[in-house]
Amino acid sequence: MHKIYFNTVLEAIKSMMDSQEKAIEEAAKLVGDCIADGKHVYTFGSGHSQLLAREITGRAGGLVPVYHLPDPIWGMVERMEGFGEKLLEQYPIQSGEVIFVISNSGRNPEPIEFAIGAKERGLKVIALTSLNHSKNVDSRHSSGKKLYECADVILDTGTPKGDATVSFEGLSIKAGALSTILGASMLNAVMVDAIQYLLDKGIEPPVMISLNVDGSDEHNEKLIARYREMAWMQQFFF
Known about the structure:
Blueprint: H1 2-19, H2 21-36, E1 41-45, H3 49-55, E2 66-68, H4 83-88, E3 98-102, H5 109-120, E4 124-129, H6 131-134, E5 153-156, E6 164-168, E7 171-177, H7 179-200, H8 216-225
Parallel strand pairs: 1-2, 1-3, 3-4, 4-5
Antiparallel strand pairs: 6-7
Helix pairs in contact: 1-7, 2-7, 3-7
């Protein structure tokens, strides 16, 4: 069964690579321009999407001023309207910055409110979602909107409704989720394009080196020092 799953993953990545080229380039430009202006990029996801929100923050080969805005109770209230806006108020986001809001289904109030609230505050919103899923379910937010309808750029993983992909004889339920591996691939694709975009503009990208490589501490400390005003957030991913 694992070969079926691996082949499904490979086919999905190839499809995503072909269909999302323009969206990846648009997202990378937003990220690159934001960093070039000395501003910050944020990520947010609830539940399992929080794994993806952590994927591009504080890691080897990543851009330093990308910060994870954590959901302190891991999506336990992602269906509760009003919580997302209250949580967003706790973070020092500013106009002109960029935020990735991540939700495979894009239907729950918490990520929708993050996207709406961020746009109202003047941020550019990049939604990482699955249109296959989102367009085949109802919104759980009173506005009737889904995440992709609140974004400036949509990164569509193409994950099927329900996420799981592998069928079994004698079992009516599928297994083998795709959203995490596709989402991580998509986010890293945006990051490498953003790095190249900065290089093309003659700007040295603030890229971290793995903490497990000798000599990385000095390099990383110099980069982190540029964004010392956000030091309180380092606790979430360093």
